[in-house]
Amino acid sequence: MKQLTLDLHADSPPLLENFVAAANADLLAALYEAVPVADVPQHLFLWGDAGSGRSHLLKSVVTAAAQAGRPACYLRAADVGATLPEAPGLLLAVDDVEALGPDAQIALFRAFNAARGLRMTLVTSGGAAPLQLALREDLRTRVGQSLIFEVKALTDEDRQAILQAQAATRGLRLEPELVQYLLRHGRRDLASLLRTLDALDAASLERKRAITLPLLREILQRDPTL
Predict the structure, then answer these.
(1) What pTM did the predictor assign?
(2) How far apart are CA 38 and CA 132, in angstroms?
């Protein structure tokens, strides 16, 4: 649970270090192992619901590789055309592969085929396990040969612990019933929860008053994105 004390402000850049591992410790370890160039690359495929943290993790492993001096590139499916970057030692992350168009699927298939000779590592993601993805069969086979991880959602206990830890770092006091109300009535993804905490912090400072349930209700009613 030491992960919960990290800097998790809503505007923090996505890093492996500020991803809350919770039930995803093995996945996080595999991503750290993927950062250095390997003689025999081990590709990874991450799947999970929207808001589970897939994009955070792909961007984070690209950042970690670049910081380690390795060429690295993150692409959303919508940004992939008929070609993909290829370079010796490249770590290539492609998000939401089920949204790739026909030419982009061919490009990704070719990248898998070229990866061993170039010592490239491919980290891909999707909204479902490989067998359930609407991809051409040869590409689905390549994706399915990766190390496959489901990005498991945070539990309510995880979310509550994160909010309490983040509030404590800011000198705020969150009563348990206030956190429970937020989990019932606010958006439940971690980014939204942290934005709500930022809004509560700002309102508390501006009004020079403690954080209360009426203040939380006001903020949730005022901002429909929370």
Answers:
(1) 0.79
(2) 29
| C-beta atoms surrounding 146 within 10 Å | 18
In the chain, count of helices (H) and strands (E)? 8, 5
CB 50 within 8 A of CB 16: no
Q: How far apart are CA 112 and CA 114, in angstroms?
A: 6
Secondary structure class of 96 (helix, strand, coil): coil
d(C-alpha 45, C-alpha 131), whole Å? 12
Q: Is 3 helix (H, G, I), strand (E, B) or coil?
A: helix
pLDDT at 6: 42
Phi and psi for 123 in degrees, rounded to 5?
-120, 115
- pLDDT tens readout for residues 47-57: 998 878 899 99
d(CA 125, CA 165): 30
| Residue 210 DSSP SS3 | coil
Distance CA 23, CA 106 (A): 34
Q: How many CB atoms lie within 10 A of CB 129?
A: 14
In tens, the pLDDT along 175-225 reads 999 999 999 998 888 778 888 999 999 988 888 888 999 999 999 998 888
> What are the start-end ranges of the H helices in 35-150?
54-67, 102-118, 137-144
Which has more confidence, 23 or 122?
122
Of residues 147, 194, 151, the one with CA closest to residue 25: 151
